[in-house]
Amino acid sequence: MKSRKCKSCKTEFTPTRPMQKVCSPECAYTLVKEKADRDRRKEAIKDRLSVRKRLDAMQTLPQLVKKAQTAFNAFIRARDEGKPCISCGIELTESGIGGGVDCGHFRSVGSAPNLRFEENNAHAQCKRCNRYLSGNAIEYRKRLIERIGLAEVERIEADQTVRKYTRDFLIQLASQYRAKTKVLQQNRSTNAVK
What we know:
Helix content: 55-70%
Number of strands: 4
Largest sheet: 2 strands, antiparallel
Structural class: mainly alpha
Strand content: 5-15%
Order of helices and strands: EEHHEEHHHH
Strand order of the largest sheet: 1-2
Mean pLDDT: 90
Number of helices: 6
Shape: elongated
Low-confidence stretches: none
């Protein structure tokens, strides 16, 4: 028979049997042990994934909406970083007037839940305008027209489409907005380095 390399120790040997892959019983034991370790690691990864799937399956629809809303709001704040408050026009900083930045909806989530994930309906807003002035809607509308145009503002104001969110859609939406936020932050840090 032709000589070949041992699958375990990589030394040359002449096999005594046709399907022999290793040079000695010690190498056979090592090879079997490595395969068992690989299989164990694969199973552990599979178990972790199945646990995550089970946890996702146990979440209620409101919990999934909350997760998707959190991811969406983070994206809006990242998208509008460096822009002034949509309502009052002050410079937005984490420690600015009002104590930071919120994601303010032109048509509130309470009055138009169908627009909660509409990007043109949400912009960075100071906490003072969003929380204490109920969105400062009149000023919000004026500056919104400047940003996206009158036709788009009127479309948002007229939109009464009923939207039913499914579990899969909400999970996908949260994942999508987390990825978009990450890309925005990476682009900013890359541009800051240059």
